[in-house]
Structure formats: C-alpha cells, structure tokens
Design brief:
single chain, alpha/beta, Rossmann fold, 6-stranded mixed β-sheet, 4-stranded antiparallel β-sheet, 10 strands, globular
C-alpha cells in the first residue's frame, strides 16, 4: 500500500542542511497497524505528515497504492489526501464555531457528497460512536475525551483507506486514552490501515509493528 524509498527531509540555511529525516526506506501493507516511536525531535511527526501528504520530502520516492506521490501536483496531492486519508491530531483540531454534527459533515462537503447521502453518513457515524445526543453541542461543551472521539469519527466518516494518528491520546487521561485506542484497534480489525505516532509503549502495543526513529533515521522495526 505504501512504499518509501530513500526519503529525506532537510531545511537549508545558506550552505548548511539540517536533516529531519534521512534515508527512510519503509513498506507498509494494507491492513497493518503501525506504531512510530522515538524521542522528541526524532522526526516522527514529520514522517507522519509526509505520509499524510501534508508535507513534502526534500528527496526520495513515495508510492501510495503504486502511484508516485512524489511526482504529484499540489492539486493531485490534495485530492488524494481528501479521498484516501483520515488524520487524528493530539489537539483534536475541531472547528470551534461548528457543532459536532457540522464538524462531522465538513469532510463530506469538501468531497461534494450529496445532501441525502451526507445526512445518512453523519447519522451512521453518530450512532456508531454513540454520540447522537452530542450532535448539537459545540466542541467547548465536550470533555477532552469526547472531542477526540468526534475527531476520530470525523477522520473515518469518508471511509479512508488510511488513518494517521499523531499522539491521539496525548491530552487524555488513561481511561479516555484506552477508549480511543480500543476504537482505533476496532477500525483496524475492520480493515483500515492505521499509522500512529506515540510515546506510549502501552499504545504502541496495539499495533502489529513498531518503527523506532532516532535522529531522523529508522533505528529498527519490530
């Protein structure tokens, strides 16, 4: 599903290159649950953002479903990102001015899903996540756990092939964190490919493979 060949990311300052990622070679099969671990500054989030097509590498090749992402235009990248990838952030990134219902509807509006189908998809996800009673509330009326629940629901509403999660339980207490991780595991069991960045060894064990990064290099995979 995903293949990275010699991916590198650096920032240039006059004659100096500061590397964030170096020589990343990685294959991820459809249906895997991958955990990316490593100390702060190891390049974990940068790698996740490149996988999510929210950032571009400085060099190397990225293939998604055998399509050369590294050769795509901005518009093609945007279309691919919208249609195939769901993102879950540590900070939730819900839109404060919109209700839960409207937050869930937003990705479908971007994809130009028709009205009746959109209503059906939102109703289905509200039911699946047991948040029907919260649909008219705004994010600031929800607990952190409930906000992250809505964020995960929004990430999967358009049925993406891949979910990327950047420290998805970082702002939650342990019970809420476990609920989110159990939910991601259930989605993976249904066939969704998941890649998470985490500092938590407990959360990492939800995955079937751990990739350790250090100073921008892949140190080892388990």
């Amino acid at each position: 599903m995903i293949e990275l060949r010699n991916i590198e990311k650096y920032y240039k300052n006059k004659f100096v290159k500061t590397y964030v990622l170096r020589n990343i070679n990685l294959k991820i099969n459809e249906g895997e649950f991958i955990s990316i671990m490593g100390p702060s500054g190891a390049g974990k989030s940068t790698l996740l953002y490149i996988l999510g097509m929210l950032d571009t590498p400085s060099g190397g090749e990225y293939y998604f479903d055998e399509q050369p992402v590294h050769k795509m235009s901005e518009r093609q990248l945007s279309e691919m990102h919208k249609s195939a990838i769901g993102f879950v952030f540590q900070q939730y990134h819900l839109i404060d001015e919109l209700t839960v219902y409207e937050n869930l509807e937003t990705p479908l509006l971007y994809q130009k899903v028709k009205g009746n189908e959109r209503k059906g998809m939102v109703a289905e996800i509200l039911d699946k996540f047991n948040i029907v009673a919260k649909k008219d509330l705004f994010p600031n009326q929800l607990s952190g756990g409930q906000q992250q629940l809505v964020a995960v629901a929004r990430a999967i509403i358009s049925r993406p092939k891949l979910i990327l999660a950047d420290e998805p339980t970082g702002n939650l207490h342990s019970d809420q964190g476990k609920e989110i991780m159990d939910l991601l595991k259930a989605l993976n069991d249904e066939g969704t490919t998941i890649i998470q960045v985490t500092h938590s060894e407990i959360n990492a064990k939800y995955g079937n493979r751990i990739i350790n990064l250090a100073d921008g290099w892949i140190e080892e995979t388990n």
